[in-house]
Write a structure and sequence with these properties.
- There is one protein chain.
- The protein is 2% helix and 53% strand.
- By secondary structure, the protein is mainly beta.
- The strands form 3 sheets. A 6-stranded antiparallel beta sheet has the order 1-6-2-3-4-5, with no helix packed on it. A 5-stranded antiparallel beta sheet has the order 9-8-7-10-11.
- The protein is flat.
Length: 188
């Protein structure tokens, strides 16, 4: 679908120079001389590199519609994560690198949002938070103020996380999947 550059919005996916780009930011610039243009910060959906492009406001660009499907995570086989479509029961394999660091938090049966373009997976979005068991917690150092001090802990998946001093090993905690930070104690 062709759209004018002035109509580009963050979150749009564009086909430009033979690649698919996710729009991160768009800024309209009106210089003193010459015509206005849209300066667009974009990230390559396949390679991950970023670029900034300038489009004249009346220039048309190709906007791509992505299919979003709720899919269930099944298992890892090497570096490939297998997901299943809950409606058609089709399975697709996604490379761990495409998921990034949040892949550490994938659990059997977890429902994720998979973005597809012409049947090929472009990105996987995990739930915002996940509850995990804390298997190790360093002891509290006396004299530290409770408000600003966090101590290191280790989750059941082997990932290290900074936790408040009152949280002990064996506790289930809620962790943010995007950056791996402690949110709160899990309500079991």
């Amino acid at each position: 679908m062709k759209i004018n550059a002035i109509d580009i919005k963050p979150g749009n996916v564009l086909e430009h120079a033979g690649k698919l780009w996710l729009v991160m930011k768009r800024e309209l610039v009106q210089p003193g001389k010459g015509g206005a243009f849209a300066q667009v910060e974009m990230r390559d959906l396949r390679a991950g590199n970023k670029t900034i492009e300038r489009f004249r406001t009346q220039e048309t660009v190709e906007r791509v519609q992505l299919d979003e499907k709720e899919m269930q995570f099944l298992y890892f086989e090497g570096s490939q994560a297998t997901f299943m479509d809950n409606e058609s029961f089709e399975q697709i394999a996604v490379d761990r690198e495409m998921i990034g660091e949040p892949a550490d938090f994938l659990r059997d049966g977890m429902v994720c949002t998979v973005r597809l373009y012409e049947g090929a997976a472009l990105s996987v979005e995990l739930p915002q938070t996940v509850a995990m068991l804390l298997v190790e917690a360093d002891p509290v150092v006396k004299g530290q103020t409770a408000s600003s001090s966090y101590k290191p802990g280790k989750l059941e998946n082997g990932r290290r996380v900074m936790i408040p001093p009152h949280v002990e090993a064996g506790t289930r905690i809620v962790v943010n999947t995007s950056d791996g930070t402690y949110v709160e104690r899990a309500k079991d």
